[in-house]
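The pair is quoted verbatim below.
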Amino acid sequence: MSKIIYQEKNGVAIISVDRPEALNALNREIIDDLEKRIDDIAENENIRVLVIGGAENFAAGADIKGMVECDPEEAKAFTFNSCYNKIMNLSIPSIAAIDGYALGGGMELALCCDLRIAAETAKVGFPEINLGIMPGAGGTIRTPRLIGYAKACELILMGNQVSAAEAEMIGLVNLVVPKEQLMETAMKWAEKLAKKAPVALAAAKKMIRTGLTMPTIEEGVAYEADAWAKLFSTEDQKEGMRAFLEKRKPEFLGK
């Protein structure tokens, strides 16, 4: 029986882990099911935003029982990188709605999303160092790009959990809300994004990520200008600007 719950609402795909007995800890079966869902979403033109969450807990890390006796080759096969990279590379925006624990592999899952909203009661971090290992699904790579070298070192090397308030303060999450407002807020953000021009959203998301890898600002700005200009070949650009001039809401078709 799948431990992944999937829903669609108003162009928004909602995925949650359903393994409460293990605080939604992630195992190979869950990640494989999640990856299949992500593949389906990538091919579905009706889905414009992805929300990933979990009742009571986002995901309290990876399942240690499945890893403890691994040798290096088995450990490498256990990593969640294929799935996580697919989430990161989706053309549509993604939002992590973080309730309860988001630790280790769970926090790395949240980092794959473009935006992160946390409940006031959430706890996040990378406890891997306390187990004699380190993050292995992008934690050491994505975290410093998001919050800087020093804070990333503090989180990863100390292995401490931090509160939602501190996570917001250091830029690890975008917004903290009361627990009872978490999914409501995530859906408000998602539905707002779903009304934007899909082609422009995809271009902007790609440009933000690409810009981080550019060796100089000048090269990044030149690449951005080309991407910006190409949007003027789209129907959505014409619709958006005409709607603005005609003082009406645009109806974007993703073309």
Q: What stands out?
A: The chain is about 45% helix and 15% strand. Residues 4-194 form a domain with the 2-enoyl-CoA Hydratase; Chain A, domain 1 fold (CATH 3.90.226.10). The longest strand covers residues 4-9. The mean pLDDT is 94.
